[in-house]
Amino acid sequence: MASNVSITLQNNDDARGIIEAIVADNPGAQVADYPSMVKIDVAGRLVVNRVSVEERIGRAWDVQELQLTLVSMSGSVDEDDDHFILEWRK
Amino acid sequence: MSLDIKTIGTAARRHTYANVARRIGGDKPASRYQEATFDMQASVNFHYKPLWDERFELHDKARTAIVMNDWYALLDPRQFYYGTYTQSRAKLSEQFDRSCGFVEKLGALDALPSPWREMLCEYLLPLRHYEWGANMNNCRITDEGYGTAITQATMYATMDRLGLAQMISRIGLLVDGNTGDRLAQAKQRWMDDAFWQPMRRLVEDTLVVSDWFELLLAQDFVMDGLVYPLWFTDFDERGRTHDATAMTLLGEAFLEWFADTSRWIDAVLKVAAAESDANRALLSRWFVDWRLRAVDAVAPLADEVLDAGGEAAVTRAIERLNRRAVAVGLTV
Question: Do the Cβ atoms of A34 and B76 come within 8 Å?
Fold first, then answer.
């Protein structure tokens, strides 16, 4: 069984579009709401797509902007201009 | 000893306003844009009809022939509310400021060979009066339009047009060393030069268009859709062959604004056209009418700036505009 990767973002207006994009693009994503943050767990692999986020926030979005609302994460990071991927490498 | 830190979550009773929840399909966190837009305008219990037009209520859907089941369907894809709008425009204006500073430091406009300097003043500076017309028009749309989804965006467009007029004035001041002579001369050109008169007439005619949605399409889609690509792409390309690269630098902010605003107006027209065949037919008819008039207004200026290339440039601009119109569902 693949273990979970997770990402935790602040629960605010800036992060909301990112959270929605993650939930839409990662079937099986478990979303846990905490008082000021949102933790998302996905089995094996979690992807944040630039295009999906841009669709939701209505403006150009740089994948590095993710850092502005990022609280914590677990998994190995693969980041480029179009996506941010968390996964456990074999 | 092990220490287990737990958080106790307190569930919020509700995540957004009831009117917003009804629109976004249940009680979940809404964006600030949604909360600052949906149902903001009063829609019932108007006690008095306005003295200046007693045929209508203060906010009245019947002020336009376009019919929408829900006027809040005309959302802004840029999701501009006061905060995001001002941030975005502050960025644009900073960028223009920096370009101006750079051009001034290099003395790039002073160094411009004088025939093209005259041409630049001739085609660009009177455009600030066109911008003033666009400011008036968007202001009236905001006044008579229905629903905050559209009137909020047109209010921002109103402010944008003052900003753009100021940016053009700034270029005039760069050319005349802050004396303002060039701006006074541009006003005379707007009033007297033969090739500006069709444009002045078009702008003045739009000031008295009675249907606000027709005015929205005429100003923000058709007229801007021809003027901006011509002025800041075609005219500018010709300028570069006359060593006016500095103007390209200054024009970047205008093109960026145009791309941003096109995204909004295209989205609005797309939703309005998709609402009904009657809307689509009416918008298409308005589009064809105003395109005809706008082409007559830009053609003499294109001929003046581009000589023999004017006609081809106008044809290209019409093609671009037609492509946008087809993409939003209009018949061209």
Answer: no
- How many CB pairs (< 8 A) connect A and B? 22
- Enumerate the domain spans of chain A: 4-87
From A26's Cα to the closest Cα of chain B, the distance in A is 20
pLDDT tens figures, B97-140? 999 999 999 988 888 888 999 999 999 999 999 999 999 999 99
Residue B10 exposed, middle or buried by CB count within 10 Å (0-12, 13-18, 19+): exposed
- Give pLDDT tens digits for B293-313: 999 999 999 999 999 999 999
The reported pLDDT for the residue numbered B98 is 97
Q: Does A16 touch chain B (CB under 8 A)?
A: yes
What is the ipTM score, two decimals?
Answer: 0.79
The CATH homologous superfamily for domain B78-327 is: Ribonucleotide Reductase, subunit A (1.10.620.20)
Considering the domain delimited by A4-87, tell me its CATH architecture: Alpha-Beta Complex (3.90)
Q: Which of B29, B76, B84 sits opposite A16 (nearest CB)?
A: B29
Q: Return the closest-CA partner of residue B288 out of B252, B332, B320.
A: B332
pLDDT higher than 80, residue B3: no
Residues in chain B: 332
Residue B289 reports pLDDT greater than 90 = yes
- Which residues in chain A have Cβ-Cβ distances shorter than 8 Å to B6? none
**How far is B10 from chain A, CA to nearest CA, in Å?**
7
| Whole-prediction pTM | 0.91
Q: Which two tokens stand for residue B123?
A: 């085609």
Cα separation, B203 vs B226, in Å, equals: 14
